[in-house]
Amino acid sequence: MEHMLDVLFNHRSIRKYKEKPLTEEQIHTIVEAAQHASTSSYYQAYSIIGVTDQQLKKELAGISGQSYVEHNSHLFVFCADLRRLFLKANEKTREKMMENLQNTEHFIVATVDAALAAQNAAIAAESMELGICYIGSLRNNIAKVDELLELPEFVIPLFGMTVGYPDHNPEQKPRLPMKAIYFENKYEDNDAILEAELNEFNKRLEAYYQSRSENNRSDTFTDQVQRKLSNPIRMDVTNFVKKKGYNQK
């Protein structure tokens, strides 16, 4: 138990890896750990693609804009996947199922299932003293990733995860205060309290950015999110998701 808590509390994103591939046993263990995550209604509504082709890694790195998507020990891509659920159904039942799967509820189910599986995989990798980094930037051109991975209808690439032997030891980034994210019995809708927590967190994060050993800068949490959310980003994802059969009603 203590070891597992140490793994959880020491998490940090690793973006530099040694040139050493994972063994088949390590890959198997990570994927098996992912499969043991909780899943809604036992759907197991996700698929995982291991990218071993170096040219494919290079193309995905170009989409993400992150060099470590190409240079790592192993790259996983986690997909929402409802396709297998209706494959064994007869034509009449399949039509009903495919219609029902188009609602937002099932899009949420598949996305959450994939995220839970991924976090299990991340914890398994880190427990083996490997480093990981989630890659949401694959959605910079989600249609191209879909094409490269040859994904059928009802299968959507959500994010990647690089895994490997760390070649740096970055400082751990602070998290929001627990008071800002954990409430009991009802949501704590008090702007004054939240603003006070955010002000204190801004100070902590600014000190972290200024003192860290790599890419130090002057920045705060609220400035960071305001910059990001003041500009449109990945506006094509909504239509792409609908074209794949999801989130249509």
TrEMBL record:
Q: Which Pfam family name is an example for this entry? A: Nitroreductase
- UniProtKB keywords: Flavoprotein, FMN, NADP, Oxidoreductase
Q: Name one GO molecular function term.
A: FMN reductase (NADPH) activity
Give the enzyme's EC designation: 1.5.1.38
The record places domain Nitroreductase at 10-165
Q: What class of enzyme is it?
A: oxidoreductase
What family is this protein classified in?
Belongs to the flavin oxidoreductase frp family.
PANTHER family, per the entry = NADPH-DEPENDENT OXIDOREDUCTASE (PTHR43425:SF3), OXYGEN-INSENSITIVE NADPH NITROREDUCTASE (PTHR43425)
Q: What is this protein called?
A: Oxygen-insensitive NADPH nitroreductase
Organism this protein belongs to: Salinibacillus xinjiangensis
Q: What gene codes for this chain? A: nfsA
